[in-house]
Structure formats: structure tokens, C-alpha cells
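WARN  no MSA supplied for this record, continuing single-sequence
INFO  ligand: magnesium ion
INFO  echoing inputs
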Amino acid sequence: MNIKTEVRPADAEGIARAAELLRRGELVALPTETVYGIAADARNGEAVSKIFVAKGRPQDNPLIVHVTGPEMLHGLVSEVPERAQLLMAAFCPGPLTIIMPRGPEVAAECCAGLDTVGIRMPSHPVARAVIEASGCAFAAPSANLSGKPSPTNAQDVFTDMDGRLPLILDGGECDWGVESTVVSVVGEKPTLFRPGHITLEDLERALGEEVEVSKAILEKLPEGAVVRSPGMKYKHYAPKADVTLLDGTFEQFKAYVDAHAAERPSCLCFTGEAEKLGVPCVEYGREGDGADQARHIFRSLRALDEQGDAVVYARCPQKDGLSMAVYNRLIRAARDIPLADADQLSREILLPGSPLLPQLAERFGADIIRADGTLDRRLLADRAFATPEGKAALDALTHPEIVRRIRAAKQAAHRAGAKLFVLDGAVIVGTAAEAECDKLCVVTAPFEVSVERIAARDGISPEMAARRLNAQMPEAALTARADYILPNTSTREALAKAANELCDTLIGEGCRT
Ligand code: TXA
Ligand code: MG
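INFO  complex generated
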């Protein structure tokens, strides 16, 4: 493919040029109120096929057909169900796609073999003007390369589509920033397939009945799963970085990021938090404000890629209302397997205000708590590790709470549909937390290699690193208890590959933790 791509302002001339291209069976990228789309005449199969080539999109993922209003539906749908009429009256034109029974005039290429078609009536003046000027109902997916975040401005479209289509109309930033809500009215019950600016609650109010939420919305799907809306099964919005979504308060988030400073992470955080985190950040909207987050989320995911970040920790939005749409996009950008870090948990349970602190002070001396309420860990360690009784007393105080938090995280992950939960930390071996695990995997490396790695990672001397390693349970004792051993002797990538394969095996065996 090497077409010359022109970017034009979406003025009268640009719209006329777009209409001419559409009528000739060519592609045009244009703004809608949600995201930019790649339009082709929905009645022209050959034109629609070009969309799949330009995007690198799987053929079995159907396209949405865009019209200006109900008067254009004749021939595109075979019937307008009553529920569709209620929804159109309430929300159209606007960011809603309604799945209806397919009519004879829609090109087969739009529908991926389904007998239904998604219909949307955009409110954006440019999208509407192009439909009016061309007389074409247009099929349009988001204007990104398949697998990349949807574009919300013409520059991002150009980055993905340069050389792949003849015209991009520049109509500025999109208003809403996430794709339309997709709802089906063909089944027995109305079903939400993709959350968007029009929320579940909005739909239920307009229909006067409960709307089912397709399960795939709030969880990722296993490879090869059969789904009713094909777009759900593809890996979407995948930035190059390894993104981990962390649920919790800002303080918990910051503590986690601080504890993982050695990974040189970046953060995807809420507005105003970047300066407090002290690592490279991309902000994606105000906390608790789903509309603001929606407007920024895709540009922010692209910004992470542009910065070349490798490890990203992301703040988790709420999961309901407008934020459901943002959460749904973020879980598709994030790593599949939820993970708890035992070291991190053991620090978290002793933050200022914890009811455990007074109990520790009583046992090990009031001076282990500093004037500002924080715990002097070194002093505590000196006293607790001085005798076996001290160590046992410390464990007896802290372990129940750590185990309680591991269980809560595990249950939350399983409720959210996770197939596997990983607990990281050599410290759990030989403690009550070990019983929380179905399988134990030990990552091994020659002693000198580990010393070198720890010294480089934490910026400490090799002697200090060796002392730390010696304080842990010896590797031989760990491997003796292990169900799996992963040697960490070559590259990080090789270890990651082996770890991913192990996770696949465990999921295949029905292992849960
Ligand atoms: O906001 C939007 O909807 C944007 C703008 C350009 O209008 N378009 C868009 O299209 O997001 P696309 O192709 O990226 O996403 C369409 C989604 C996919 O998840 C697809 O599987 C689903 O809608 N879909 C389309 N037709 C369907 C059908 N007949 N049944 C079930 N799901 C359908
Ligand atoms: Mg898309």
C-alpha cells in the first residue's frame, strides 16, 4: 500500500472532496463526536473491503453503519424493533450504536456473516455533512491500525494511516473520546456489548427495563472464546508497555510505585498526581470524572508509546457509570494476570494509622514509631530479629493481616473473572501465606549472578546485596518445596516467555492461584 494521504480541514471544500471519494468507492478518515473513523460506502462491498486492508483488521469483526437519521434506515435494516425506536428517540443523533436485524442493502463485508447490523447516527457536523453530501450511509470503524488505541485527533489518524488511504478530514479533537456505546435489541433481552458515553443507567431509563451487561465488558476473554459481539475478543488498545492496573487509593498506588522504583516505571495517573509521584507520568483525566477520563484515555495510551515506556503502573478508574467505558478500555490495555506483591503488602499494613502499630510498639518499644507516625523499620528489624522469640512475635502480629489482604485480593481477582492469581515474594515461603497458593514456582539463578543483579537494581554494594540474599531462605531449601523451577540465567525476555508459558500451563490445569 502506498497511497498519497492528504490531510485537509473539514471545511466545505474538504467535505465535497470526501463525498466524491466515498461515491467512487474510496476511503475517507473523518471525525465523529466519539473518535475518528475510516468511512466507506456501506452498500459497496469492494469499498468496505478496503477498510479491513487499511486497518489490518480481522475479517470477522463487523463494522458499524452510519446514517443521519431513521429516514435512511430503509433497506439497511429489515425491521426497526420497538426498543430501537425508544433508544433512537432518546439518544440519536449521538454516541450510540444499535444492533438491529440486517437489511438486504448492507454489503456482506460489513457484517462478518452475521444477520444483524450495527447502526449509528453520529451528531458530529462533519460526519453528518459527509453523509448528506455523498448520499452514502457509511461503514466506519475507528481510524487506528488494528490493536492500537482509537484516534481522537487527525494527527493520530495520520500516524497510523499515512499511505493507507487518500484523505483525512481534520475536524479537531473529538468531544467524547471513547467509541460509541453498543447495545443489541435483537435478542430476548437488550444487551450492552460495549460501554460508552451513554451509560447502562441511561439505556435502562430510556427502555424502562433491565439491560444485560455482556460478561466480556468487565473482564478479558480467553483466546478463542466465542462471543456475541466479535469486537470483544480482540486484543485492543495495546500499548507497547507492560501496563499493570492497580486498584486502590492514591496513597496505596504511590507506595506500590515507590516500592518498584528499581523497575524505572512510568505511571498513567489522574490529573494533578504526576508531580506527587516523582516518576515519568501521563495523566488521563480527573479522578472520579469519567467524562474527563474518557476524553483523554486514548491520547494518553498513545503518549506512553511515544515516550517508549516499558513498565507502566496505571491508576484504576471506577467501574460503573461513565467510568465503565474507561475501565473497559484500560483492562484491554493491561496485563492479563493479577498479581499481589508480598513485600509490598507487608509494607502497606504498617503505614501510619494502622492498628498494628500500637501493638508492635507495645511489644518492641514505643520508639519504633517516629514522631510523624511512621514506623522505623530498621529499629523494628534490629529488635525483632535479635531473638527467635522476637521474630515469632512479629510474625504472629503481622501475618494474619497479610494473609487477610492476600485473600481479599485473590477473591476480587476471581470475581472479576481472572483465571489465575500470582503472589510474588520469597518471604511467603514457610509462612501461613504459603497455604494460600496452589503451586509454588521458584525463580533461580547462580548466587553471584543474583548478587550482581540486586546490586545493580537497588544501587547497593555487592557485599550488601550478598548479605540480603543470605538472609533469605537458601535457594536449595526453596527449590526443594517448589512445584516449578524457572531458571533466570539468560535475558529478561527469556524469563518472561518462560513465565508466560507456565501461566498458560497453570490456567490449562485449572489452577487458580
Ligand atoms: O464510536 C464509534 O462507534 C466509532 C466511530 C467511528 O463511529 N466506530 C467504532 O467502530 O468504534 P469499531 O469498528 O472500531 O467498533 C465496532 C464495534 C466492534 O466491537 C464490533 O464487534 C461491534 O461494534 N459490532 C459491530 N457490528 C456488530 C453486530 N452486528 N453485532 C455485534 N457487534 C457488532
Ligand atoms: Mg475500534
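The first strand starts at residue 6 and ends at 9.
INFO  checksum written, moving to next record
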